[in-house]
Amino acid sequence: xxxxxxxxxxxxxxxxxxxxxxxxxxxxxxxxxxxxxxxxxxxxxxxxxxxxxxxxxxxxxxxxxxxxxxxxxxxxxxxxxxxxxxxxxxxxxxxxxxxxxxxxxxxxxxxxxxxxxxxxxxxxxxxxxxxxxxxxxxxxxxxxxxxxxxxxxxxxxxxxxxxxxxxxxxxxxxxxxxxxxxxxxx
Length: 186
Hints:
By secondary structure, the chain is an alpha/beta fold. 36% of the residues lie in helices and 29% in strands. The chain is built from 7 helices and 11 strands. It has helices at residues 12-20, 35-43, 56-65, 98-106, 109-118, 131-136, 141-154, and strands spanning 2-3, 6-7, 24-29, 47-53, 70-74, 88-94, 119-130, 157-159, 164-166, 171-174, 178-180. The strands form 3 sheets. A 7-stranded mixed β-sheet has the order 5-4-3-6-7-10-9, with helices on both faces. The chain has a two-stranded antiparallel ribbon with strand order 1-2. α2 links the parallel β3 and β4 (47-53). The longest helix has 14 residues, at 141-154.
């Protein structure tokens, strides 16, 4: 866990107390600079907001300024910490690139199983895509969005609404609400 420039280790008891003090938990994967997490935590003080990113340096500024209900975890999206199992009622992935985007496009088993593991039953998963990042990986925006939608559906996620593109903004939001297929919970 990072707070400003300090890396902290939170023991199981402290983490349990932090989690039990919040009925709703948002986990943002690939949180980048942490602005989304900081802003979300400030807007919803009754919700625990956890940002996960592999790059420690990006998180320093916003983790220092974040409210107490924000937690920043240094971890790779392809190897999510076990402590997050069945915690999230909402998971967000905002503008993925690199290995996170590749994992979504290819259905990387570690990423997909990690998503399944951290989500509570009927959790929502919201993914916002960047056309430029998709283009760098050889995918037009609409085709990349459809590919990710198909990968998630084939992995056993129950899709409640179809994907839709906000073409004028170059961003695709997909899917807005997902729940896990009941038979696939560990």
